[in-house]
Amino acid sequence: MPEDIAGSEQMLANWNQNIQERAARYQEMATRVQGMTISERSQDGSIEILVGSNGILQNLVINESASGKRMSEVSGEIMKLLQRAQSRIPELLQEAMAETIGTQDETANVLFNEAKKNFPAPPAEEPTRTPYDRNEINFRVEDDAPPPARPTPPPPPRRRPPRDDDDDFGGESVLT
User: Fold this and answer.
1) Whose CA is closest to 22, among 136, 139, 106, 126?
2) What distance in Å separates the CA atoms of residue 87 and residue 29, rounded to the nearest whole number?
3) Given the DSSP bridges, would you call strands 57-62 and 47-52 parallel, antiparallel or unpaired?
4) pTM above 0.70, yes or no
5) Tell me, what DSSP letter sits at residue 27?
6) C-alpha gyration radius of the chain
7) String of DSSP letters for 71-123
8) Which pLDDT tens digit goes with each residue over 102-140?
9) Distances (CA, A) of 21 to 17, 26, 32, 64
């Protein structure tokens, strides 16, 4: 009997030690992931963003060189950069997992798959085209084009000048 009790105590001690080691590895992974940031910059360098490992925008810099762009272009570029940065989060999470808890861990795989679902790859970028790329003509009205001229209203009707006729009766009725 004493051997069974000693064996059970040893098994319990090993189990407790494994749980503590695993918890420490998960804590190390969480600390690493929390400190990760991802930065992206537009091709022309006019816009820069910084995203945290949770996918939240932490910093946005719009340089003076973006002042010549339309606001719709600037906002579109910001969204593209944000999606591109967020799509890199699963990769960083997988690296942190591989270095701390391992990629064979079932919980790690659930976390990684959830990150891939929440931060998918951005849509493929379409190349910027001009109407001349394929001999196309663009009939759209550009945002910066002046509005079409309004037709001028017709002048108000002219009143006839008063006449000095004897039968005018001064604008009053004949019956009064």
Assistant:
1) 106
2) 19
3) antiparallel
4) no
5) H
6) 37
7) HHHHHHHHHHHHHHHHTTHHHHHHHHHHHHT-SS-HHHHHHHHHHHHHSPPPP
8) 878 888 888 888 989 999 888 777 666 555 555 555 566
9) 6, 9, 17, 51
pLDDT tens digits, 67-77:
889 999 999 99
- The CB-side HSE value for 73 (13 A sphere, CA atoms) comes to 13
Amino acid at 63: N
Kindly provide the b/e burial profile for residues 122-148, where b requires at least 16 CB atoms within 10 angstroms of the residue's own CB: beeeeeeeeeeeeeeeeeeeeeeeeee
Strand partners, 51: 38, 57
**CA 79 → CA 67, 68, 72, 92, distances in Å?**
17, 18, 11, 20
Q: How far apart are CA 141 and CA 114, in angstroms?
A: 43
Q: For the chain, what percent of residues have pLDDT higher than 70?
A: 76
The two three-digit tokens of residue 159, written as one number? 């009143």
